[in-house]
Design goal:
The protein is mostly helical. It contains 10 helices and no strands.
């Protein structure tokens, strides 16, 4: 498994899309505190989980990381590299687990860099604007990192289920950018159990109770997607 993990990490590291997503994620962490102008100055004094920029970053990062996960698995089908990959690791379930671990680790690394850029930009902006920087709670920071890994893993599961890169990407984007919000308005308090809302709650959680509930919910969606994707992958003809 160690060799397989190294191989999957190498694939991600040598894929231009991964670097594009990394650059995009860091750019979001910076622009979130620069683009809105005076609103950010007022927000800087608030705790991190109450700042509009934190929500903005969590909202956009999940899209990039789902795309990362989708591409990690569907590129194998699209470019015909799945056959040699399975020759090196014949058990498809094991292959998908290793793929998921490598992609989730990459998602965590990308999110950590984006979060670091966010905190650094906020600190610099606060100094320039001569305003106090609000409390940085550990829950939003931990939530960003955890959700980064889970969103990437969800992308792998979605790609494994749908197989088509275009279909999986469009499905993920439409759900996160439209369907999830429409359902939120109708479900009221139960909306926290939607995947998109759970991911956002992780980023802006003010306390351990909300953070834990959101983390368990998003993890459950991740595992369900991977199990379904694994069952379908085991049944499909690779050739």
């Amino acid at each position: 498994m160690t060799q397989g993990l190294r191989s999957e990490l190498l694939k991600l590291k040598t894929t231009p899309a991964t670097w594009g997503i990394l650059i995009g994620a860091v750019a979001i962490g910076i622009v979130a505190f620069v683009a809105p102008g005076e609103n950010v100055v007022r927000d800087l004094a608030k705790p991190l989980h109450e700042q509009q920029s934190t929500f903005f970053i969590g909202f956009l990062l999940r899209v990039l990381l789902v795309v990362l996960g989708v591409r990690a698995i569907t590129d194998e089908w699209r470019h015909g590299t799945l056959t040699p990959s399975l020759l090196a690791m014949p058990r498809r379930s094991r292959f998908l687990v290793v793929k998921t671990i490598a992609t989730a680790a990459s998602g965590i690394a990308i999110t950590m860099l984006a979060t670091g850029a966010m905190v650094l930009t906020a600190s610099i902006y606060a100094q320039i604007s001569d305003v106090p920087l609000g409390t940085i709670s550990p829950y939003p920071l931990a939530g960003m990192v955890l959700s980064g890994g889970l969103w990437a893993a969800i992308g792998v599961g979605l790609g494994a289920i749908l197989k088509s890169q275009l279909l999986a990407t469009v499905t993920g984007l439409v759900w996160l950018m439209a369907v999830d919000d429409m359902l939120r308005e109708r479900l009221g308090d139960l909306a926290i159990y939607l995947p998109g809302q759970a991911g956002l709650a992780l980023v802006i959680a003010p306390d351990a109770q909300i953070w834990t509930r959101a983390a368990v919910t998003l993890l459950a969606y991740t595992l369900i997607g991977l199990v379904v994707g694994m069952l379908l992958t085991n049944r499909r003809d690779v050739a």
